[in-house]
User: Fold this.
Amino acid sequence: MNKKKRIIVLFTALICFIAAELYAQKDISLKEVFKDYFLIGTAVNHFQLSGNDTLAVSIVKDQFNTVTAENELKWEPVHPRLNVYNFEPADLFVEFGKKNNMFMVGHTLLWHNQTPAWVFKNDQGESADRETLLKRMHEHIQKVAGRYKAQINGWDVVNEALDEDGTLRQSQWMKIIGEDYIAKAFQYANEADPEAELYYNDFSLENKPKRDGAVRLIKKLQSQGIKIDGVGLQGHYKMDWPSAAQLDSTIKEFAAIGIKVMITELDIDVLPYKDISAEITLTMDNQDKYDPYKNGLPDSAQKSLAERYSDLFKVLVQNKNTVDRVTFWGVTDKESWLNYWPIPGRKNYPLLFDREGKPKQAFDAVVKTSKIN
Ligand code: GLA
Assistant:
């Protein structure tokens, strides 16, 4: 072979290699990678369910085997007024899950947010009494969980019932009904769909005082013979919180009380955050200061995010016998709620797929963790 031919052959081989690499990368699917470990999924929104965001939908189908309704099953959208239910968006969610053969999570039967004010009022517009609210709660759970019986596989029955110190949050549910509102909600959910898994879901359970509160709450339900299958750690993480060790001990503590653990709303906030709660009115200057990656995430920050995801996923993989499911809170960076909270209009990068739907370095880092065992 003369020199020219050799160069052509080598060049062709190189092109084939690159093409194969690119193809292989495109072909990597999280649900395949983690199939022996845990379910892996995402929250889906109305834009996706109504078929408008086809890019995100194709990622969901390729990558995930479980979906959670981001908003469709919260009280406000599904039961906006007394005796008025709007099931259309939630029906789309269930159709989507069925069609794609996915484990479906209903989020959420009871929460203090995204619940209309009328729920807690009587006919005179005053605070409802315990009996009225219990009846309302019962009917809501019967109607919603009952409608999707044997279709939705698991329910976040109660969301965020605890304060940071581990005591029960003084929500309207708590104030009007008393602390047994939690037990009642689980009983009603079990009655509406005996086969569905039932979860308690909250954030910051990685912090000891709140985690202790959740352990007390779950043990109490267990001692009353009430069905509770799992605890959801929301997983709205920061670059420096929680530590891998904190996540590990949290998972192990819940495992020790015989309960499944899931990460239910995973994302990692890369924007400056800590000082924000002290900012009451933000000026343009402050906006700039808190929105450093308006023009894209620099490579060094991509790398740090990838390392952070890797550290946390290593813990999840090491605890694969306890961790039942890992769900991201959104598909691509574009639609993440962290672009709007706590300051609207910033550019955040908390997920594994970028705004064009391409896998980020964090995606590769997560995939690599599957090989550590
Ligand atoms: C909480 C809720 C979610 C969602 C996020 C923000 O974590 O559980 O339903 O509202 O806040 O998007």
Remarks:
- The chain has 14 helices and nine strands.
- The pocket of alpha-D-galactopyranose is lined by residues 107, 159, 203, 234, 265, 337 (CB under 6 Å).
- The CA atoms of residues 219 and 225 lie 10 Å apart.
